[in-house]
Every structure is written in structure tokens, then in C-alpha cells.
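Molecular record:
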Amino acid sequence: MRPVTYPRPSLTLGIDGNVIATAFNYLAPVTGTATSIALAQAATGGTALSLSGTTAGVLDIGRLVTAVSSNAGDTFNLTITGTNWFGVKISEVLALNGTTPVVSANDYLTVTSVVPASTSAGNISVGTVPATGPIIANGPPIPCSLGAAYNVALNVKTSGTVNWSVQQTFDNPFVAQPDTACTWAAVVAGLTSQTGAANADSIQPAQAYRLVINTNTAPGGALINIVENTGITAV
């Protein structure tokens, strides 16, 4: 089952009369492979690759995409087009680096086309980041209720083998599309590169948070739960 792709906060009333906002997101990526989107194939400049991999470009969650050639001399650009966590069309230019895999800047829920700029000397493969990372997937931005100073509790639980982090941004990821246009940074050290359950509090005026899966052994995953005391008193 694909995850809920828009973790909107739900509002409840706290015992102190303040409005409480809660949101959660669960990520458990399947094992990525170098050919899950496009099997190794010769590329013709200006002609889209065949999305012949096991996923055909429809991925289990929004995740980073990799590309590699069997020939060290292939260093031309690939234009990757698809959709993000929210179904918004996104695209980027990814420069091949021969036999060294390169990784997209965007997380793709679907890949609809991969177009090479030149004809290849080797075979080009397109897939998803393997279980060893260093980053498999960035979860969808979870919006904060106000983007103003408030108290927020961040709680992460895990299942199986997984390494995760929580990041925050002071930019608005719902205005800057794709959300890679935002600057994402760690919240606190205790929520960075963790392998078990952890929690922390923050009073920083973040616009959004996201859960990052660094590595995992499928079906290992992590669940983030965010609880905000918005400071708004119900009337």
C-alpha cells in the first residue's frame, strides 16, 4: 500500500484550551536497485529511454533516482521528468558520470521519462538508491500549523533495521516547488542518523519537517509523529 502523500496536520483541543496540531508519516522503502526504472540499454540522443525496469517508473514511495553507464566515457546529461510526493510535475537535468552512479536532487513518486542528451557508448541504467544509501528517500514535507514560535514534539518510532534523520526548513516547501528549492537542515543531533526510537522538542519557527530514510533493510521503516502546541487559544 502506498503511503498517504499529504500529511496534513489535524487539529484538536488541548487541556489548556490551546489548539494542538498533530501529523505523522511512515516510510519503509523497498530495496532499491540500479535498474528498477530502466534496464541497461543503449541510449540515443533526444529519444526517451524505455522504462523497462520492474517498477516501470511507478515507485513505492517518493525516493531518489540513480543513473549509471557501463562506459566511463558517458558523461552527457539526462533529463528526468516525473511527479513528486504531491503529484506535482517535476524535472531535473542529471549529469552522467560514466560508471560512477549519480543521484537525483528530487524525490520522485513516479518517473515518466528519462531523455538522454547524447547517444551513449555504453548501456545506461536508471533505478533507485540501494539499501546502503547514503540517503534512500526524503519524506514529504509535513507543514507546521503557523510557521511561528510554538512548542513542537517530534517522536520517531522504528520497525526492523533502519537509519533515519529528521530535518526542518524555514522556507515554505508548498510555494517553492520542488521542495529541493528549500534549505533543509537537522533539527537536533538526537534526531540525526538514528537507528532506534527517539524524540525531541523544538521551539524553532520551522515551516515544515520531513523524515529522511538514510539506509534500511526492507521492510525496515520509521514513523514520525509531530505534535504542536500552536499557542492559539480556542474561543
